[in-house]
Each structure stands twice: as C-alpha cells, then as structure tokens.
Amino acid sequence: MVSLTINGHQHQVDAEPDTPLLFVLRDALGLTGTKYGCGIGQCGACTVLLDGQATRSCQVPVESIGAQGVTTIEAIEADPVGARVVAAWVGIEVPQCGYCQSGQVMAATGLLKETPKPSEDEIAAAMTNLCRCGTYNAIAVAVRQAAA
Ligand code: FES
Ligand code: FES
Fold first, then answer.
1. What string of pLDDT tens digits covers the 148 residues of the chain?
2. Which atom of ligand 1 is nearest to the CA of 57?
3. Which domains does the chain have, with CATH numbers?
4. Residues lining ligand 1, CB < 6 A?
C-alpha cells in the first residue's frame, strides 16, 4: 500500500511502488481531470502540482512522493492562484477541444505560485505543454491576465 496526500485528503492506494502517479490518479482514484497524452514526459497533459510545483505525473513513481502534497485540477480552484488562473482561462475562452487544458492550467498555476509576475521569457520557459489545437497565444494572454 502507498500513502498519498491528494487534494488535502489522505489515501491508501494498492499500487506497485513504480506505478506512475498519473495512473493512480486516474485508475485507482477516478480523478480523470488529469489527462494521459504521451506517457513519456513530453506533452504535459498529465501535469499536477507536487508541493505547489508543476510536475508531469506520468514521470513520477508513487513511491517517490512521500509526504509531498499532490494537487490535481479537481481542486485547483481551492488555491487562490489556481482560482485566478481558471478565471482568466474562462474569461478568455482559452480551450478549444480542451484535452490539454487541465495540464495547461496546472502549469500556469505552478508558474505563478513560484513567479507571481513572470516576464515574457519566464512565461515561455514555463508554458511548454503541447496543445494540438494551437491555443498558445490565448494561453499566454490568460497567464498575463492571471498575473496582473
Ligand atoms: S502524459 Fe505525461 S507528459 Fe505527456
Ligand atoms: S485545446 Fe485541444 S489540445 Fe489543447
């Protein structure tokens, strides 16, 4: 059994120690807002916060998490920064198909928690999640609005 703190709640999960956090979230706990894209750390669809830092959950074995708190898209609006990011995303109508967007919101929240007033270069460096619909310009506008 692996003990995890997810969205402020303690969970005991029956999983092999090397199981990626992404699969535990989706398959064991039903938290399907975190998406599977590539499974190799490239796309960012699976991004969650680990102790506030944006992290690609397909690359995180559950045994490595320990006492770190996991935040998923399901609870992001309980975080004041996350709530601002979601409000900007909704106001600007960023999503197209939406598949990548929970990961984008988590990446933006992680950025603004660490760097509340990011420069253009810092936004570009942090927002590396892929979007097949090409919402990159809208994402950049939403991040700037959430930071304002
Ligand atoms: S599914 Fe994790 S980075 Fe693509
Ligand atoms: S909104 Fe469709 S993949 Fe990003």
1. 999 999 999 999 999 999 999 999 999 999 999 999 999 999 999 999 999 999 999 999 999 999 999 999 999 999 999 999 999 999 999 999 999 999 999 999 999 999 999 999 999 999 999 999 999 999 999 999 999 9
2. 2
3. 2-74 (3.10.20.30), 76-147 (1.10.150.120)
4. 36-39, 41-46, 56, 58
- Are the C-beta atoms of 62 and 119 separated by less than 8 Å? no
Q: Which ligand 2 atom lies nearest to the CA of residue 133?
A: 2
pTM to 2 decimal places: 0.97
Q: How buried is residue 78: exposed, middle or buried, by Cβ count under 10 Å (0-12/13-18/19+)?
A: exposed
- 107: nearest Cα among 139, 145, 66: 139
Q: How many CB atoms sit inside 10 A of residue 46's CB?
A: 28
Of the residues 97, 129, 136, which should be mutated to test ligand 2's pocket, given the most ligand atoms within 8 Å of the CB?
97
CA distances from 119 to 76, 111, 130, 133, 148 (A): 23, 11, 20, 24, 12
